């Protein structure tokens, strides 16, 4: 870690963090911990807040398998269960692996933290970039898929799907800005309804010998190929890779371990296991029903809708499943809002993103990360026009890269640690790395022309951005000599320059503050070149002499109507005359009682501050004078 990061860790958590020196009384610390814990997750809340992506993937994971295998006709569809079992085996490997990741890296970060420790800085940045892209795409895909399901039920809304997508994004963002625990409570009910609906479809369907209804698929063209007689290995590999889209979101719990209540590691591990068990049961159960009902994919109707129709009939039970699917797909974006801000905070702590992303709000929310995620997702929604088919080909590539790197990193972890049973654990992770690596290559190759080239291009660009930010912080650290013992402070002559334009209580307050700060105070006023400006300057000079505050007023003639340039030239002249002087420009400003009243201000203070900051080394002090109902 660089000197800049080391220095900030020594001082707390960076800008705005409480100083480490002195500490706090034990009772205050305990009270703060208790207050913070209220805004953290229980295991049940974690399952609701961080598993929505994975849970919702059962709505399109089995369908992805069926659509690929349909190219081989009925022979291909007969392989649905074996392919699903292979995916469930991979899911078991991933859950076991991420359970170990949670224990080994309790500060969160998941694949990024593993790669950083065991595979080097560059590899960790590739992992972080892949996860960032996957999280952002998850928001866009989840929202558009949910809205697509909604517009399928209500076709009249189809033309407004982009605005509906943006409205859903604003809603989810607003809930997350209230705190992750609050958002988790809001999502417990829809998650439970969806899981309960899918499990009901599975259980009821397993007791049926034939579909009770096929009304949902009636009138829709079949996507089944009728002339195939064999199933090739490449087709099975494509089906496996396509079905692995159901595994997106498995890593989210490991990325957000700090969001859980104490003991965070144990709660996060329980959440990971529960997520894997539910997801695996639903995938295998739906696959069994596909074979039991000899389901054929049709255009315009999802596989899950057909299974609900076949198991429950075309009545209220069918619509409950559909509504639950719509809601959960829309809310699955919450996985990204729970995981990405934590990952961004880790990157910011390591100087690969601006430090503002490491700051937390009162409710333990990485507010800037949440807002950044929402902004980029909104751009993706606008780019796609709210069309899910434009975004799906880009989805899941990043998470496979993260899976593979994490598995390889954990192999190295076990080899270095050599704890009890390390060979078996390393073998498990190695097997998982091979499976996810093959899946990443197959998905990228098969979908390259459908848009995955954009991800292949975006990954190195994002890594380059991380490196650029890191180098910038390194240069700042060198200039500030962070991590080194600085020279002792010394007193120097201080000159305070106060720009004024008229006499008022604000002028008096500014000069009072100035004489308290500096050894020498000078008031300056910019004289405009026109006749009106000269009259205003004469009036101010006359009033100043009558007031006689004990501070000289210097008139700065302006060749043009520029306000900042004359003050900048004067500050430079002061600095040139006395290089040892410390020049401070104190800018008095009015702080109105209401936010909307800021529109009434002339913004002169901001103009002067910008000019002085850009062209001089003077210290800028902006004095805010509050004007409220109670101001006397």
TrEMBL record:
Molecular function as annotated in GO: transmembrane transporter activity
Gene3D superfamilies recorded: Amino acid/polyamine transporter I
Keyword vocabulary terms for this entry: Membrane, Transmembrane, Transmembrane helix
Listed Low complexity bias regions: 10-31
Cell compartments where the protein resides: Membrane
Membrane protein topology class: Multi-pass membrane protein
Regions that span the bilayer: 65-96, 125-149, 161-180, 187-208, 228-253, 273-295, 315-348, 369-386, 392-414, 426-445, 451-469
Ranges where the record places region Disordered: 1-37
A single GO cellular-component term on record: membrane
Top-rank lineage group of the source organism: Bacteria
Annotated protein name in UniProt: Amino acid permease
Source species of the chain: Streptomyces cinnamoneus (Streptoverticillium cinnamoneum)
């Amino acid at each position: 870690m660089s000197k800049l990061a080391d220095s900030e860790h020594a001082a707390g958590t960076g800008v705005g963090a409480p100083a480490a020196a002195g500490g706090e009384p034990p009772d205050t610390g305990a009270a703060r911990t208790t207050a913070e814990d209220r805004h953290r997750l229980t295991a049940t809340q974690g399952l609701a807040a961080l598993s929505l992506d994975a849970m919702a993937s059962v709505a399109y994971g089995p369908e992805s398998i069926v659509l690929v295998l349909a190219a081989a006709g009925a022979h291909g569809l007969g392989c649905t269960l074996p392919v699903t079992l292979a995916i469930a085996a991979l899911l078991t490997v991933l859950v076991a692996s991420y359970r170990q990741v949670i224990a080994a890296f309790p500060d969160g970060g998941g694949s990024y933290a593993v790669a950083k420790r065991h595979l080097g800085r560059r590899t960790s940045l590739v992992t972080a970039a892949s996860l960032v892209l996957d999280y952002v795409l998850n928001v866009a895909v989840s929202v558009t898929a949910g809205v697509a399901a909604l517009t399928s039920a209500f076709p009249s809304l189809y033309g407004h799907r982009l605005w509906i997508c943006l409205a859903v994004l604003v809603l989810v963002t607003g809930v997350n800005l209230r705190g992750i625990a609050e958002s988790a409570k809001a999502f417990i009910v829809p998650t439970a309804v969806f899981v309960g609906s899918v499990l009901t479809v599975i259980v009821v369907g397993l007791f049926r010998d034939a579909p009770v209804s096929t009304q949902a698929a009636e009138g829709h063209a079949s996507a089944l190929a009728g002339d195939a007689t064999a199933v090739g290995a490449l087709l099975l590999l494509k089906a496996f890779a396509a079905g692995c889209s159901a595994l997106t979101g498995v890593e989210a719990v490991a990325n957000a371990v700090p969001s859980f209540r104490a003991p965070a590691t144990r709660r996060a591990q329980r959440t990971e296991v529960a997520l894997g068990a539910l997801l695996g049961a639903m995938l295998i159960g739906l696959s069994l029903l596909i074979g039991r009902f000899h389901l054929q994919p049709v255009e315009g109707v999802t596989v899950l809708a057909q299974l609900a129709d076949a198991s429950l009939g075309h009545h209220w039970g069918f619509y409950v499943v559909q509504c639950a699917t719509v809601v959960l797909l829309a809310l699955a974006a919450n996985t990204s809002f729970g995981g990405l801000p934590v990952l961004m905070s880790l990157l910011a702590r390591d100087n690969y993103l601006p430090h503002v992303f490491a700051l937390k709000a009162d409710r333990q929310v990485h507010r800037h990360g949440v807002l950044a995620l929402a902004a980029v997702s909104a751009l993706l929604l606008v780019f796609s026009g709210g069309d899910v088919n434009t975004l799906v080909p880009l989805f899941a590539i990043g998470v496979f890269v993260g899976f593979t790197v994490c598995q390889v990193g954990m192999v190295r972890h076990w080899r270095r640690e050599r704890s009890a049973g390390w060979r078996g654990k390393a073998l498990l992770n190695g097997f998982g790395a091979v499976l996810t690596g093959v899946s990443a290559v197959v998905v990228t190759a098969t979908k390259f022309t459908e848009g995955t080239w954009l991800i292949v291009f975006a990954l190195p660009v994002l890594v380059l951005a991380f490196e650029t930010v890191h180098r910038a912080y390194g240069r700042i650290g060198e200039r500030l000599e962070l991590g080194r013992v600085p020279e002792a402070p010394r007193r120097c002559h201080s000159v305070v320059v106060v720009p004024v334009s008229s006499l008022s209580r604000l002028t008096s307050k500014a000069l009072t503050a100035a004489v308290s700060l500096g050894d020498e105070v000078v008031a300056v006023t910019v004289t405009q070149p026109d006749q009106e400006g000269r009259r205003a300057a004469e009036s101010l000079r006359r009033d100043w002499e009558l007031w006689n505050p004990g501070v000289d007023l210097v008139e700065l003639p302006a060749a043009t109507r520029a306000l900042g340039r004359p003050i900048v030239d004067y500050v430079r002249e002061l600095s040139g005359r006395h290089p040892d002087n410390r020049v401070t420009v104190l800018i008095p400003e009015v702080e109105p009682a209401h936010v909307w009243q800021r529109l009434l201000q002339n913004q002169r203070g901001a103009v002067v501050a910008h000019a002085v900051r850009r062209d001089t080394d003077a210290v800028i002090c902006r004095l805010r004078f509050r004007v409220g109902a109670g101001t006397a």
